[in-house]
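Revision sheet: structure tokens.
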Amino acid sequence: MRFRHPDGSTVHLAYCTNVHPAETLDGVLAQLRDHCEPVRKRLGRDRLGIGLWLARAAARALTSDPVALRRLRRELDTRGLEVVTLNGFPYEGFGDSHVKYRVYRPDWTEPARLEYTADLARLLTVLLPDDAAEGTISTLPLAWRTDFDEHRRATALAALRTLAARLDALQDTTGRSIRVGLEPEPGCTIETLADALGALTGAADVPTHRIGVCVDTCHLATSFEEPGPALDALHRAGIPVVKTQLSAALHAEHPEQADVRAALGAFAEPRFLHQTRTRTEQGELLATDDLDEALGGTQGPAAVPGLPAAGPGLPAAEPGLPTTTPWRAHFHVPLHASPQPPLTSTLPVLQDTLARLVGPAAPPRTHHLEVETYTWQALPPELRPRTRARLADGIAAELALARDLLTDLGLKELP
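Predicted:
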């Protein structure tokens, strides 16, 4: 979906296909047929943007076979789909029954992450619509925090410099511009936009014309980061927001209440990590790596920064997060359907962020927007869509809400 901003530029809206598990090229092609095209038809549009996720195996197959890549581009065109952005955060196995910490490997200290991202950039130059000015890729924010020392940081930043040089060369040979955004995520070495600012401005030789930030509004809200000051600081420093993922976190205003904790417990599940945070009245951010830990599991809360390494094998700490201030959990809940009381979502944070990034008062700070609710099948059982049709209905409803938010800001939907 495309929108004309009051300044005359085009803003793209897509939804991320990591909600549809597929590791192979055949699986990706089936996604387009079984999921993406039906969503487009529900919205009554001739063209729908998708934020394509290509697992490592699928990316490798397309990189090594130009015929297969042309087939994918042809399928996109035939089904009324377009790709201006890729999700390069998960490497593989995102559809597995137990993802958790594995989603953070390989990280930017490992050559495989660089090669994978460079492959995605080459593929995107072919998949971009003919009239698109640039493509974007979101990626891991360097690494999970465990054992991330200065040597590993230097290695990761060196990999980003190498990537930037490759992207420059790619534009020279193809005429297509590709930018990559580090996506801050709770628990990673870059958890917040402030962390991203520190990492990129502290390494002046990482070219920010190629490497910027991907703002995920669920992640931003989970860490209780205020959108205004964080985005303004990026803007002043010249750090680009290359892409924004529209998502909402779980919010519990009164975690001390038994019914609230019971409602949160229904969202604790074994597939994805649901980092949970609370900000004390003194302003200290306390954290656990997963929702069940916050509710009283084996790993207790820790302050941020300085959150110790978490995961299997840690000694038990005092369980649970304090319940005197609200909690937020990293669980991408459907945008259009707030959780049942007594829980809510952080949709207002999304709205605030969106207004600051693409509002009519100034030129857009980003042109690529992506709805990224990948947790439909991780919802409590009674809330999960049981058929493809119901899933398509839900995704279309999310996109319709995002469309309405954009038009309310003065953007005009294009055919």
